Amino acid sequence: MAGLQRWAARLARSPKAVVLVVAALVATAFAVTPAYADDPGLNCAVTATATISVTPNPVVYGHTALVQWSADCVANSPDALLQISGPGFNPSTTVFPVGGGSQSVLITQTGNVSWGVTVVDASSDTGYSRGLASTSASVTGVTTVPNLAGDTQMQASQALAAAGYVLGGVSTTVDCDNLNRVTNQSPDAGTVLLPGSAVSITLGKKPAPPAQCP
Question: Tell me: the pLDDT tens digits for 91-113?
Fold first, then answer.
């Protein structure tokens, strides 16, 4: 008690010391209570954490994958929202509440694909946002259109079915070197195409009489 009295007496004799003590107390108060604590949306956005994953991984071309995410923050607020970026999502038009969610997406890209989750304070005048987590996956099972040149219509149909495609439109053109055989196809051979897509063919035919094939 005597020590406390002596300390108080020294402060009373030193105005500068009083100012320093008050400044220290104010700084401590702000350190304990962040400046944004009275803004629920910003408080949530600043403190948010999240995870995001995709199943299966690797993903399969032409098939759906499940993207799942989970996010939490201090004092969850409806003013804080999540943007999910990547295949199957449009972050400029679709947002989600802070919390958990999932969405099935069709894989139409090749190579590698990735998704990310960003938190946004919708009530912030400064447009505060922060990336929280991301995940990526390689794409397997990429399919390409087979070469149908020289096939009969039946052979072309069988080759397309074996590759996971269907025969589309069938047209003809005068081609004496490829009578009743594929002389053209669309899309071209080697084109990356989603399974189940249609491929059109053009068959060679004789010219209309009186013209004849040589």
Answer: 988 999 999 999 999 999 999 99
Determine the Cα angle at 201 with ends 199 and 206, to 5°: 175
Torsion of CA 30, 31, 33, 39, to 10 degrees: 80
Question: Cα separation of 40 and 121, whole Å?
Answer: 9
DSSP states along 159-175: HHHHTT-EEEEEEEEE-
Tokens 């069988």, residue located: 158
Give yes or no for a contact between 160 and 185, defined as CB atoms under 8 angstroms apart: no
74 three-state secondary structure: coil
Q: Please name which of 156, 176, 175, 174 lies closest in space to residue 166, comparing C-alpha atoms.
A: 156
SS3 assignment, position 144? strand
In one letter, which amino acid is 123? S
The rounded distance, in Å, linking the Cα atoms of 139 and 109 is: 8
Vertex 131: Cα angle to 49 and 124 (nearest 5): 90
